[in-house]
Write a structure and sequence with these properties.
Length: about 325
């Protein structure tokens, strides 16, 4: 079931991180080294119910009617990074500076936009208003940038023998510079029936996307643009892995620098089933969805830790899987 305005998002990433806490960079030897890198994709869409129906069911639902596309917008960015930083061995807080290579970027916004299909199915009227931008370039990287990763950990005293541990996390806080092509659209177009030969040869208005966009565009220009990366911010009350307690609670919130992403609240319980095995469950609300249940499981050995988790196990509104492997050398 779709509302008049809906949200969709996709976050995919693969990341490695190397920590050397035995390396003494300074005389006090309290600072370690961190090296990290990865590839990331963050895509999001705010879309009207009519644009979903038009895309998946065609114009049959709008015979003699108007499809309203107003308020829809989309964005997608793919980038890679390589970073170096420092670790505080006492608190395990870290700060890393990253070099960013932009692989792809596209975004667009619909203003007052409508599609009308007449009752006889022999003509279509399109009214478009909005703007779009995409990265240009034939190379592997279409832009470069810088980003900051911050992992700040602290604790508060609960009683004489216990502390509460917290983490403030910022990831991919930065920007990229690219050569972009910008389109401004404010057009009214009318199309009549296509010839049978044109349909057989797929010579429709959607056959050449670039030509279609150019036809709709009032103006287009190339220029250097600065874009913000979809930075993630998260605050968490952590569990203490060294605690003797069987059950511990955690909670926090997460958000991205993205209009479609609703700040997410989450909380759950961690159960230490054995010295080498933990399992947990959480409840969250927000993000690209609403209420969701999740679970995780982790094997913790002396040199190796392997964890698998999902933040959306039972809901039909999306999929989630997280796999983490840690090795000590």
């Amino acid at each position: 079931r779709h509302d008049e305005i809906n949200r969709f998002g996709l976050e995919m990433n693969a990341e490695f991180e190397y920590r050397n806490e035995k390396l003494g960079l300074f005389k006090d030897s309290l600072i370690g080294l961190i090296v990290k890198g990865g590839i990331y994709n963050f895509s999001s869409m705010i879309y009207s119910k009519d644009i979903f129906d038009l895309a998946f069911f065609g114009n049959e639902m709008f015979v003699g009617d108007t499809a309203n596309l107003t308020g829809s917008e989309f964005s997608s960015v793919t980038f890679q990074k390589l970073g170096f930083g420092l670790i505080d061995k006492r608190t395990r807080s870290s700060l890393a500076f990253n070099f960013v290579g932009l692989n792809n970027y596209v975004q667009g916004v619909f203003g007052d936009s409508y599609v009308y299909q007449n009752q006889e199915l022999d003509s279509m009227a399109i009214e478009f208003s909005g703007s779009a931008e995409r990265a240009l370039g034939k190379g592997y990287f279409k832009g470069i940038g810088l980003a900051l990763d911050i992992d700040y950990r602290f604790k508060m005293k609960k009683n004489e023998d216990d502390h509460i541990h917290f983490q403030l996390l910022a990831r991919n806080l930065g920007f990229a510079v690219m050569n972009g092509e910008n389109y401004n659209l404010n057009s009214s177009l009318t199309y009549s029936s296509y010839q049978i030969d044109d349909l057989i040869n797929a010579e429709t208005i959607f056959n050449d996307t670039d030509e279609f966009v150019s036809e709709l565009s009032d103006t287009s220009s190339n220029r250097n643009s600065v874009i913000l990366l979809p930075a993630m911010f998260q605050f968490t009350k952590l569990i203490d892995p060294m605690s003797s307690k069987r059950i511990q609670g955690f909670f926090g919130f997460r958000t991205f620098l993205n209009k479609a992403y609703i700040p997410m609240l989450f909380g759950g319980l961690d159960f230490r089933a054995a010295s080498w095995y933990r399992i947990g469950a959480q409840l969250s609300y927000g993000g690209f969805s609403q209420l969701r249940w999740g679970m995780y499981s982790a094997l913790c050995f002396k040199k190796i830790e392997l964890g698998i988790a999902s933040e959306n196990l039972f809901s039909k509104t999306g999929e989630s899987i997280i796999i983490k492997l840690s090795c000590a050398f």
